Amino acid sequence: MSSIFSSHFDYITLIFLLIFCKGCLGATFTLINRCDCTVWPGILANAGSSKLDSTGFELPSGGTRSFQSPPGWSGRFWGRTRCTFDSNTGQGSCATGDCGSNQVECNGAGAAPPATLAEFTIGSGTNSDFYDVSLVDGYNLPIIVQAKGGSGACGSTGCVTNLNRMCPNELRAEDGQACKSACEAFGNPEYCCSGTYGSPATCRPSTYSEIFKTACPRSYSYAYDDATSIFMCSGADYAITFCPSRMSQKSSRDSSWQETGTGTSIGSNLQSWLPNFVTGDSSRTMPNYALHFTLFVTFFILLFRCI
After folding, report:
1. What topology does CATH give the domain 27-265?
2. 106, 97, 107, 157: which is closest to 129 by C-alpha?
3. Transmembrane stretches, by residue range (predicted)?
4. pLDDT tens digit string along 210-220?
5. What tens digit of pLDDT does each residue of 108-130 get?
């Protein structure tokens, strides 16, 4: 009986170690391009966060690229389109989402509006991640963010609608390849949530932001659109997909697309981390001394990764 209890105790201890260390490892971001054309993603780390392995790169149609962030990282991702860079000098620019660096790398510069933004704050330890897709700076590409393997609500968010097709004429940019926000187009304080409109009480949705919100109800449509636009998850990795679905070509609304990034339970998340002799998927049993040795080694591996 005591040996059985000890095994279960070790198993429970390992579970808590895994939960803790998953949070201290940061998050993996995987960028996926399902557009019919090349996209040049840009990456901007917020002040106080270290930059990732790249600040801008070329991502061909069908391509993917992943980045590991440290705990506590915050920043944003976006897609640049219709870019031209000289093969000899590397210099050039993009029609939408350009960061003004005159290079493929953005080197600490952000996107020029209009651009669809995927924004993240990664928790450390047991703190939750926060993420959203924002149209506050306008729109140029459909984007979905999906949380993978986290615990909590972990909903998918984004905008799969092609807003460029339904953009009001006064907001159209780059020959219909992007759609400005009302703030960018007109500069009025009530649209920009500035001046006397610089608070949630005074800055309300506009006719223009409502167009964005109706088409993409999970995305930020104006500066104080927090209640239905910000999402939380713990210990997840994230897929950021440009042009995520052909559905965007068929519908003017994204209310019919299904969340595929809903949270999984802690138990099912840990299942993929544990060796099969611990989870019981193996047809062979392991002696207690071997199990204890394995748990001991696992503990120090995780401890080393968390330091």
Report:
1. Thaumatin (2.60.110)
2. 157
3. 289-306
4. 999 999 999 99
5. 999 999 999 999 999 986 789 99
